[in-house]
Amino acid sequence: xxxxPLDQPEAAPERRVGVPAGLWTRCQKCGQxxxxxxxxxxxxVCPECGYHxxxxxxxxxxxxxxxxxxxxxxxxxxxxxxxxxxxxxPYRERLREEQEKTGEKDAVVxxxxxxxxxxxxxxxxxxxxxxxxxxxxxxxKITRAIEKATDENLPLIVVxxxxxxxxxxxxxSLVQMAKTSAALARLHDAGGLYIVVATDPTxxxxxxxxxxxxxxxxxxxxxxxxxxxxxxIANTIKAELPEGFQTAEFMLEHGFVDRIVARADLRKELARxxxxxxx
Length: 279
Known about the structure:
The chain is α/β, with parallel strands linked by helices. The protein has two domains: 21-51, no CATH class; 54-276, 2-enoyl-CoA Hydratase, Chain A, domain 1, CATH 3.90.226. The protein has helices at 36-41, 57-64, 91-102, 136-152, 170-189, 204-207, 230-237, 248-253, 266-276, and strands at residues 24-26, 33-35, 71-72, 108-115, 118-125, 156-162, 194-203, 216-219, 225-226, 259-260. Strands 3, 4, 5, 6, 7, 8, 9 and 10 form an eight-stranded mixed β-sheet that branches. α4 links the parallel β5 and β6. The longest helix has 20 residues, at 170-189.
């Protein structure tokens, strides 16, 4: 009988040293692996291709205003459910989930602040809260910001980033377009200065109202700006759309945007515009 092979000790499992989660991420635009710390130091901008990531409202405020200068108002407003709306989730439950996820009551933050020493009224939309869709609370807070800028003769800056009107509030959301536009007309009549900073995306009902009514409209590089999405438009008109359609660069070329400003330069550019306009 042939000798049976002796039992061999089991090999120790190979130890793999992995990269800690969140240390490196892949850029959504160029596909390069980028060091997350470098992205954050560049204000959420890809160091390889300059892609501007979407940014939540509180981070945006810290990037724009002088330290410790932001004084928030209209903090007590909270959405209700006028239609008892239900899609995948009841609207009340969706609101509760978004509030827990973001720590915000709704999709815009408003307050007074200083930008390089210039006092302003600032409203910043939050794309992490139901894609910054505009319901009654967003419309009311934007309107209150406009009215405060009018009453106190301060420049108004609105950072837009929205998928449009909030379908769960139906007609209530749509009338916010007229409400905010009427308030801006009063600001204009009073000689106020209104600056829009359009970020990705600025679309639909927001683009069709206060986002396109600025005295000066700045935009971040590559931001999508428009009403309906490109696919909807292409299917409607049965035509191929131009390359880069609805990007900030396309809008600048066609006169809908006054200047494209990289995120790192926004504070300086806002201060320059305010000084130029004598505010």
